[in-house]
Amino acid sequence: MAKPIRIAGLLRRTPIARAASNVLQPVLLDLLEKVPEARSSSSKKGIHDLRVAVKRFREAFRLFRPVLRKKTFRKHLEWIEDLNDALGEVRDRDVALAQFRKLTAGLAEPPRSVADLPARLESERLGAAGALAAALERLQLEGIPAQLAARIESIEQEAASGQPAYAFARERVRERLLDVRARWAAARREATPESLHRARIGNKRLRYAIEPFSRMLGKEVRRLYRSASRFHDVLGDLHDADSMAVMLETSMAGAPRAERRAWEALSVKVIRQRRAALRKALALADKLEPLWDEAQRAVEEPTL
Questions:
Q1: Which residues contact 21 (CB under 8 A, 6 or more apart)?
Q2: Which one, of 48, 295, 55, 300, lies nearest residue 180 by Cα?
Q3: How crowded is the C-beta side of 286, counted as CA atoms within 13 Å?
Q4: pLDDT for 18-47, tens place per residue?
Q5: φ and ψ at residue 15, rounded to 5 degrees
Q6: CA 13 to CA 1: how far, in whole Å?
Q7: How many Cα atoms occupy the beta-carbon half-sphere of 188 within 13 Å?
Q8: Which of 12, 37, 165, 187 pairs as cysteine with 195 (C-beta 3.0–4.6 A)?
Q9: What are the C-alpha distances in Å from 206 to residues 30, 59, 180, 193?
């Protein structure tokens, strides 16, 4: 889990326009500092770190939408989303390769279709890394991140909102907490990969909404942040198992009939892993319910 970025000069009474500038500037700087290493197509850590930085900035950018000009928000959210997708294409192959190699460790002589899959994933990764490098180069040449940095510096002068940061933070955390709880309730009913992934996304947005304001929101919300981090890891394991199951099923469908039994054996192993991850997620969610209740009361109770 990436360490939170320390935000200086953020107090309860800080006007939200100033708070937006104080938060977005260091988070964007963190993103830009991680670009050089990610440009190396062989740097798995660089790709992962930049992807985390982009997701963190994207959620901060969304969080402060009320004090951003509509044109600024639409224009810059578009390239942020595109960059996140490009990073995801590379990162997904890295994760799939690592998981598949672990899954097939110990197989003496895997069938050809099984043995060929890593090479295909490596080829796909190379193409995705090339597309990512081109996207990063284009952003730099067009000076788009620098344009956004300039807009962020001017937020305080342009924004009309004078709401204190404390009130703004409570509202946003409450919204995202209620969203997580609704998504998790749906995931419990359905237990489908799609519903569980939606719960994971909502939980991630909650974490990033708390992060800049954790010092001012009290111990209940700080506990919520720590619990959301643990929940994220467990739901991540579940999502990885679901993604691997789909990849195995697709590969098995295209394999020669004589080699399908090997794919079926791998699928059984992944299904067992998914069941274990789901049990763990359900057990953790049961423990988190009281923390969710506690944090929700804290952000809903009247301020003095």
A1: 152, 153, 155, 156
A2: 295
A3: 5
A4: 999 999 999 999 999 999 988 876 778 999
A5: -55, 140
A6: 30
A7: 13
A8: 187
A9: 20, 9, 7, 20
Unique residue bearing structure tokens 């489908």: 192
What residue has token string 């304001």? 213
150 Cβ contact list (under 8 Å, min separation 6): none
Q: Tell me 1's DSSP state.
A: -
Q: How far is CA 281 from the centre of its chain?
A: 17
Query: What are 114-127's pLDDT values in tens digits?
Result: 999 999 999 999 99
| Band of residue 263 on the pLDDT scale cut at 50, 70, 90 | very high
Better-predicted residue by pLDDT, 158 or 133: 133
Q: Are the beta carbons of 139 and 131 closer than 8 angstroms?
A: no
Side chain identity, residue 177? L
Residue 15: helix, strand or coil by DSSP? strand
Query: Which run of H or of E encompasses 271?
Result: helix 260-300
Please state the rounded mean pLDDT for residues 136-156. Answer: 91
Which pair of tokens denotes residue 118?
């890593």
- Judged by DSSP in three states, 68 sits in coil
What pLDDT score was predicted for residue 160? 57
The angle at the Cα of 17, spanning 11 to 20, to the nearest 5 degrees, equals 75
Q: Which tops the pLDDT comparison, 199 or 108?
A: 199
